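step: validate -> pass
step: tokenize input -> pass
step: predict -> running
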Amino acid sequence: MILFVDFKKGYEKIKEEIQEALERVLERQWFIFGEELEYFEKEFSDYIGAKFGIGVNSGSDALLLAVLANDIGRGDEVITVSHTMTSTVDAIARCGATPIFVDIEEDTYNIDTSKIEEKITNKTKAIMLVHLYGNSANMDPIMEISEKNKIIVIEDACQAHGTEYKGKKVGGIGDIGCFSFYPSKNLGAYGDAGMLITDNEELAIKLKQFRNYGQRKRYYHDFIGINSRLDELQAAILRVKLKYLDNWNKKRREHAQKYNQLLEKTDIITPIEKEYSKHIYHLYVIRSKKRDYLKESFDKNEIQNYIHYPIPVHLSKAYSNYTKTNRLPITEKICNEILSLPMHPWISEEELIKISDVIKKILVR
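step: predict -> pass
step: emit ->
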């Protein structure tokens, strides 16, 4: 079987370092809010090029806290996209605010910046964009809109560890960046973990309180927070992996180029990288009108594959109360055509060829 992500191969490459990191924590017997987290917060924020990192339990919590800490709630609106993991939109709705959906670009699948301003009202408090699949959204127009209308920019960079926009790493461009370290991410923990990134010291202090019950010190609660902590074991693991992230992203980019070459003479639509973006291919997503047939063929050939994402958030049952939104024609179109192929740093050329051969049997021009 060709795995979508080969966790075992990745672990074997750094096994000794991981064991040493775990042993370090176990010997210290300090598991929450210790020096591993402090080091990792500094190392990852430095990597992104931002001043502050705030480790939390997950990318979902990072998104939620980004909304909460900016005092966004009932009666407020947040502009976002529907083609995303539902946690993006959940963060808005869970705070009582209203998600206002904007359609996406058909080539990058990221937010269509030309459609943002028409959605802004006096209730708009933020734009929550997504750097989907590891490909950067077009940030300059978003930041211009933000400055002009005095609204916050929240970057959902949960799939974009090391993605760059005009040479600057995403997650450190807007007011606040949110990252997930779910195991399958380019920088993945061995469990749930996440982080917020910001240059705003006041906001960073507030986020640290929010993640720890709203405490400024133990048992002194300034406001109602939540329990969302990145533990020492996961922080130690992520510190090891961070050293390899750029090299792993480089390998993903090389594999993506190989996919592109192998699929050149088919009717497949392959991922695009705009001149402003350095794509790190968290996912390698193709499009085809014969998607369901392709998926069936991959399954028969024991090639793991997924659809990210089959149902737009605005059409899901959970968000039926938000169906007042206009139709999103590009979002709704591509959800019937997209398919994610195996992608990880350790995939072999032989496996890439086998995957492309399955496609070529169906879609050679």
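step: describe -> The two ends are 27 Å apart (CA to CA).
step: cleanup -> pass
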